[in-house]
Write a structure and sequence with these properties.
Elements: H1 2-25, H2 32-51, H3 54-65
């Protein structure tokens, strides 16, 4: 379970540090929807970690990995 948690945390950090700044910089709210979805996915992933549910963690990681630039 520790490896899944580490992978989730690493992906959340990547999304926060790389993806969100890009979407937040787009003009006239063009990236608002994507940024909102990413933030919600991060929140869900952190909740999965807090719950300790391995199935939820795997699902959250898979969902986080679907984001592409």
């Amino acid at each position: 379970m520790a490896n899944i948690i580490e992978a989730i945390q690493a992906r959340c950090n990547e999304l926060r540090d790389v993806y969100l700044p890009i979407y937040d910089e787009l003009p006239e709210h063009a990236g608002v929807f994507a940024a909102t979805m990413i933030r919600q996915s991060i929140k869900n992933a952190e909740a999965a970690i807090a719950s300790g549910d391995a199935v939820e963690c795997v699902a959250a990681l898979k969902y986080l990995q679907e984001y592409k630039l």
